[in-house]
Amino acid sequence: MDISKLLDNNKSWTKEMTKGQENFFKNLCEGQAPQALYIGCSDSRVSPELFLSLNPGDFFIHRNIANQVIPSDNNLSSILEFAIDVIKVENIIVCGHYGCGGVEAALSELEPNLCGVWLADLHAHLKAQKVTDWNEAVEVGVKYQTAKLVEVPVVKRAINNKQILIHTWIFDMSTGEVISL
Ligand SMILES: [Zn+2]
116 C-alpha vs ligand 1 centroid, how far in Å? Predict the structure, then answer.
């Protein structure tokens, strides 16, 4: 990829977005009101804006290796609090994906590095569940993240107040389709 070409891409994109809607960017500056918080994997092939045909402002997004919900992670915790209490999203989507390298790494012995530390909780869960199949590990993994998500106090409160719905998805990159579990 030619990085300098990206700035040209950006110029074309701004032209495209303002075609027939010249106030598009002015309206974006007015504020955001996305209806969903999306928690997914950082994998470069799994961009929700592309596979869901989203526009700027549609989704509040958090991505990390293997789409994990680690309650002690200040990054995710602050996003949950902001999305629920300030933006008042109505949905939280946790999306895993087949072919996830993070999940594959968590299936075997972990490297003694920061990725290993990040994957330790998932690794322990897959081991306890005796999961050895990669696809099954992706499914077990995303369900596990959702199970942890609904126990986070700010999320639990929002569910009890009927403010939010929780969705568990898997993106199948062999077809481009999203499967709702
Ligand atoms: Zn992944």
Answer: 14
Report the catalytic residues: 41, 43, 45, 97, 100
H/E element, 102: helix 101-107
User: Are residues 30 and 56 in contact, defined by beta-carbon separation less than 8 angstroms?
Assistant: no
Element (H, E) at 166: strand 165-172
CA angle, 96 as apex, 92 and 102 as ends, to 5°? 130
Residues of the chain with CATH 3.40.1050.10: 32-180
The CATH fold assigned to 32-180 is: Beta-carbonic Anhydrase; Chain A (3.40.1050)
pTM: 0.95
Q: What is the pLDDT of residues 115-142, one digit of tens each?
A: 999 999 999 999 999 999 999 999 999 9
Confidence of residue 4 (pLDDT cuts 50, 70, 90): confident
Rounded to the nearest angstrom, the distance between the alpha carbon of 153 and the centre of ligand 1 is 26
Ligand 1 centre distance from Cα of residue 79 (Å): 20
DSSP 159: H
Average pLDDT over residues 61-67: 98
DSSP H helices in 21-100: 24-28, 48-51, 74-81
CA 136/CA 73 separation, integer angstroms: 25
